[in-house]
Structures are given as structure tokens and as C-alpha cells.
Amino acid sequence: MSAPFRRRRDGRYVVKLDPSVRSILVTLAEQLSPALDGDEPMIRRLFPPAYPDANHAKEEEEYRSLVDGALASHHRQAFAVLTETAHADTLTESEYNAWLSSIGSMRLVIGTRLDVSEDMDEPAPDSPTAPEYALYELLGQLQYLMIEVLATLLPPEGRPEGIL
Question: 0.70 exceeded by the pTM?
């Protein structure tokens, strides 16, 4: 079986994903994009605080007024690119980066909903959270595979351990 992501010599990225995976990505992007305008706790992870300390509430409010619009626009644009190119066989570098950003954002949101931590065990197959956890794992695998392709462009001394 060939890798789901590969960089061609011309700089485009080949995408070989099952249509069901592509549909899942589109559905998630379409669901999360409108949620960016709300104040749902699961989405807040996409808008990290600059001043988590309550003693800097005024500074945090000022920071939020400066960056929240730009962050929401970035996420919305990445989701739009993923949705528009979901069934493409190849992606440009900017489209590939939008996919990577979107998948990372989706994973953060789902991880927040599941309250994922390093010491968390995988839920039992009959657990109500098992399907969402499986989706979280799928997104993590896609993210890893996409980063692995980008890592091959690094000089050997800059590559993460384990990447050829």
C-alpha cells in the first residue's frame, strides 16, 4: 500500500485517502467553521490565552480584541480550503498546509471535548466516547503522516528522530 501523502518533484502533494475519510474531514470542517464565532468551550482551545493568569484580565481582553478575529479568519480559511480540495488527487503547498492546519485544529477540538491527557487510557470499545476517540486517533495519524512528508524536506541534522 502506498503512503496516503507524498510530495512530488514539482512541489505538489499527492493525496490518496479513502473517500470516507475525505467525507469525514469535510463534515468536521463544515461543523467547526460556524462554531468559530461562538463561545463554546471546545473551540476555545483554538484561541489560546496570552495571559492565563487572572491578574492580567485587562491585558488578556486587549489581546483577545487584537487576535481573535485573525485567528478565526485563519481557521475558517483553512477549513474552506480543505472543504474545496477534499476530493483532489494533488494539493499545492498552501493547500497542503491548510489541510495540516485544519486537521490539527479538528484534533485539538475533539481532544478538548474528550479531555484527553497523556495518562488517559483508550476507552473501551463499548464506551460512548469510543467513536469520537477513534476519530481523534485518525486525525492524529493523518497529522503525523503529513508532518512526516514535510520532515523529509529537512536536512538530515534537522529531522525529528525516527524520520528518514
Answer: yes
